[in-house]
Amino acid sequence: SQQGEEDPQALSIQEGENATMNCSYKTSINNLQWYRQNSGRGLVHLILIRSNEREKHSGRLRVTLDTSKKSSSLLITASRAADTASYFCATDPITSGTYKYIFGTGTRLKVLA
Amino acid sequence: DAGITQSPRHKVTETGTPVTLRCHQTENHRYMYWYRQDPGHGLRLIHYSYGVKDTDKGEVSDGYSVSRSKTEDFLLTLESATSSQTSVYFCAISEGTTELPLHFGNGTRLTVT
Predict the structure, then answer these.
(1) Three-state DSSP state, A82
(2) How far apart are CA A72 and CA B24, in angstroms?
(3) Residues 6+ apart with CB under 8 A from A97
(4) Residue B47: phi, psi to the nearest 5?
(5) How far, in Å, CA of B84 to CA of B78, rounded?
(6) In this complex, is the C-beta atom of A45 within 8 Å of any C-beta atom belonging to chain B?
(7) What are the mean pLDDT values of chain B's consecutive 10-residue runs (113 residues total)?
(8) DSSP type of residue A104
(9) Of A2, A31, A45, the CB nearest to B98
(10) Of A94, B45, B53, B57, whose CB has the highest number of CB atoms within 10 Å?
């Protein structure tokens, strides 16, 4: 079964607005990563947050992690048309025993110019 | 971009035929993964490898086999393709610590008619 579920499934915003997407997962994790996928391409790593961290920033990206609620959020500030893509969270479950990354179902973001 | 090449990029095959997809890396990474991506399911792990000749199953391994005879090559075989295996297949590599990201190839779009 899927470890992560992103919410919303799709999001459409105007350029310059902020975009927030959420990820919920089921089991305890070592860390959580966010990836971006442009149409027809492979996934590209954006940011990693460890289980003992609560917030992390990278450029226009802000990630939060709430291990008590088993959820994470990705905020993209001042969005651009080039941010149009699908965004996935990926977790490294503690119980996996090895380096098995489990991906969520993704959020499709469309940024309108 | 990480040196990952997937071949072929597109393939159409008939039900019941064997199909082999190839992933080739030039990064000398220890871990290699095969994922499939389907609408509504995100990415699901098929098989992964943690070294030459060392492989293990993921969550959707039925109907698939893999082989890794060299560090740089990871092959995914559909022994007898079925229509339910129509999907986009992604190869990913990792250095093997969960705090380092996965690097993805650009995918193989497989259609089974």
Answers:
(1) helix
(2) 33
(3) none
(4) -150, 160
(5) 11
(6) yes
(7) 89 97 96 93 91 92 97 97 97 84 95 97
(8) B
(9) A31
(10) B45
- Which of helix, strand or coil describes residue A107? strand
Residue of chain B minimizing CA distance to A87: B42
Q: How distant, in Å, are the alpha carbons of A48, A65, A78 from that of A55?
A: 10, 6, 19
pLDDT over 70 (residue A1): no
Q: C-alpha angle A61/B98/B75, rounded to 5°? A: 110
CB B15 within 8 A of CB B83: yes
Output the average pLDDT for chain B.
Answer: 94
Cα(A21)–Cα(A40) distance, integer angstroms: 21
Tens of pLDDT along A19-47?
Answer: 999 999 998 988 999 999 999 899 999 99
Is B57 touching A (CB cutoff 8 A)? Answer: no
In angstroms, the CA A4 to CA B62 distance is 22
A94 touches chain B (CB under 8 A): no
> What is the SS3 assignment for A113?
coil
